[in-house]
Amino acid sequence: MIRFEGVGKRYATGREALVDASFHVTPGEMVFLTGHSGAGKSTLLKLIAAIERPTRGEVIVGRQKISELRRAAVAPFRRHIGMVFQDHKLLYDRPVYDNVALPLVVDGVPRREIDKRVRAALDQVGLLGRETGFPMELSTGEQQRVGIARAVVSRPSILIADEPTGNLDPDLAIDVMGIFQRFHGVGTTVVIATHDVHLIERFPVRRLHLGQGRVLRDEPAATDVGGGPTGGQP
Amino acid sequence: MTDEKLTASKRGFRARLDGWLERHAQVGVASIGRLYSRPVATLMVWLVIGVALALPALLQVVVRNLEAVGPGQGRAYSIDVFLKPTLGTARVQQVAERVGARDDVARVELITAEQGLAEFRVRSGFGEALDALTENPLPATLIITPAPSASTTAAMAALRKDLSQISEVDQVVADTQWLERLQALLTISRRVSEGAGILLAVAVLLVVGQVVRGDIETRRAEIEVSKLLGASDGFVRRPFLYTGLWYGLGGGLVAWLLVVVAVYLASPGVAQVAALYGSDFQLLGLPLVGYCSLVATGAALGWLGSGIAATWRLRQLEPSV
After folding, report:
1. What number is the ipTM of this complex?
2. Which of A114-118, A230-234, B64-68 is predicted least confidently?
3. Distance from the B47 Cα atom to the nearest Cα atom in chain A, whole angstroms
4. Residue B222 and residue A110: Cβ atoms within 8 Å?
């Protein structure tokens, strides 16, 4: 599903975020990307979402080589990928409903269908009934869950998350991680960048440990598939 | 789900079309709402565009009115032929028919000496003095309207020469000099109107472009998030195109209003001047199609200006995470 072959990424500033990263994530797999800040986790996710392009090597998502993605093809490509950000990237002047509906609106889904799917997505993150609220009225954890609902509302085949629990206290973090695990349980490929050691230890999924722009360790899942130890719904 | 294929959204053409129409309607209405939420700024933009469009339109009005007083409008462009006073009625009739048969003459109006006298009596107020005359001092007159094909100054001169060579003709009077001046003035006015039109159209494009750029900056977060979620350039640009369209449309309507008001305000003065020249000339506005094209031009310029600005700016706005 996601294949990195000797990928390097050097930014215009000269910073070399990735030097030689190679790995393969199979469909439906759930992976933690770990490593210190600056290890290249964010860059790696950006390459998957075609926000950045590799300067060396090949990034292949689905069948698509990111380096060969034409400008006009980037938008349709991104619709297959759900993204969750540490800072949520919600639109604070829009109600929750509009935020979650945005990927569907962008994709031209008819209104009736949008309605159904937004409700379903909010239900999955435990926020059904909060459609008319504004993000500012929600707690950080709830905002993050709105972000997740938005990421999954278009039923993407790949879900990537950059430090999705970075701003959350441990209990909330576990809640959020549980949500990710449920999507993994229904076949979505999930890649989560995190440096939250406690969290990593609680979930027995495959870990790619990044450092110096490379994959330093690739630890397979202890017991893959299925709910984690505390992956319950809030 | 397989490794090869990312799940594509499979929807029928009909559903896609519905979605497309729905989005356009939604975006169009939403952009009106956005303008409505800051009425003063919107009004200012409408006024600027309105004034810019009204200026060439008013020049157009001037041209139109100059054309109306100019060639082809009856007596204003005619040749008066005074026949020799001694001719009998039959001769006069004969001459009138001969002249009327010419290709370069559209119409001949015969004013017999008697008719001329009667008209003079009514108009001049010298009725009693005229009674004192034993014979009619006025000659028979032919008022000739040249054919449209003979409306050039050269053709006019030729026609005048021919007419003056007819033996029964005493005098040919045609004031073509003012006509030449008028035509020169008309030519200049048309050029100025066109030039001003082009310049001010560019001004409208720039104004709309600049305003839309401002709109883009204020909605930057939304644009970047939308792009992250897979919004195409077209999708991101659409609301700004509608905003530009409404700016232009509103500006066009303001221009319409300005022209109508200007014509209304100028009309009494023009009528007064016309009256001094013994004319019942009425100041003309633009024809309805002119007003409509004014509004359409505004809308088109708004759409185009915002399209150029948005396309250019949105290409630079790649999301940064």
Report:
1. 0.85
2. A230-234
3. 29
4. no
Question: SS in 3 state form for chain B?
Answer: CCCCCCCCCCCCHHHHHHHHHHHHHHHHHHHHHHHHCCHHHHHHHHHHHHHHHHHHHHHHHHHHHHHHHCCCCHHHHCEEEEECCCCCHHHHHHHHHHHHCCCCEEEEEEECHHHHHHHHHHHHCCHHHHHCCCCCCCCCEEEEEECHHHCCHHHHHHHHHHHHCCCCEEEEECCCHHHHHHHHHHHHHHHHHHHHHHHHHHHHHHHHHHHHHHHHHHCHHHHHHHHHCCCCHHHHHHHHHHHHHHHHHHHHHHHHHHHHHHHHHHHHHHHHHHHHCCCCCCCCCCCHHHHHHHHHHHHHHHHHHHHHHHHHHHHHCCCCC
Are residues A83 and B229, on separate chains, in Cβ contact within 8 Å?
Answer: yes
Q: Which residues of B touch A (CB under 8 A)?
A: 1-7, 9, 11, 15-16, 18-20, 22-23, 221-222, 225-233, 235, 318-319, 321
Partners of B11 on chain A (C-beta within 8 Å) are: 109
Which chain A residues have a beta carbon less than 8 Å from that of B221? Answer: 91
* Residue A229 placed within a domain: no
User: Would A50 be classed as within a structural domain?
Assistant: yes
Whether the Cβ atoms of residue A148 and residue A86 lie closer than 8 Å to each other = no
Write out chain A residues lying below 8 Å of B5, CB-based.
62-63
Chain A residues within an 8 Å CB radius of B318? 51
**How far apart are the CA of B290 and the nearest CA of chain A, in angstroms?**
39
Residue A76 lies in a domain: yes
**Distance between CA atoms of B258 and B275, rounded to whole angstroms?**
26
Whether the per-residue pLDDT at B83 is higher than 70: the answer is: yes
How many interchain CB pairs under 8 A, A with B? 89
- Mutation target for A interface from B38, B229, B233, B237: give the one with most A CBs within 10 A: B229
- The shortest CB-CB distance from B321 to any of A51, A77, A111 is to A51
Domain limits, CATH 3.30.70.3040, in chain B: 79-173
Q: Which residue of B has its CA nearest to A105?
A: B23
Domain that holds residue A183: 27-54+71-207
Chain B: closest CA distance from residue A201 (Å):
27
- The confidence score (pLDDT) of residue B204 equals 94
Answer whether A108 sits within 8 Å of B319, measured CB to CB.
no
Residue A195: per-residue pLDDT:
84
Instruction: For chain A, give the mean pLDDT.
Output: 88
CA distance B2 to chain A (A): 7
- Whether residue A231 lies inside any domain: the answer is no
Architecture of domain B79-173: 2-Layer Sandwich (3.30)
- Look up residue B167 and give its two tokens: 């033996």
Structural domains of chain A, count? 1
Residue A146: per-residue pLDDT: 95
Residues of A in contact with B4 (CB under 8 A): 62-63
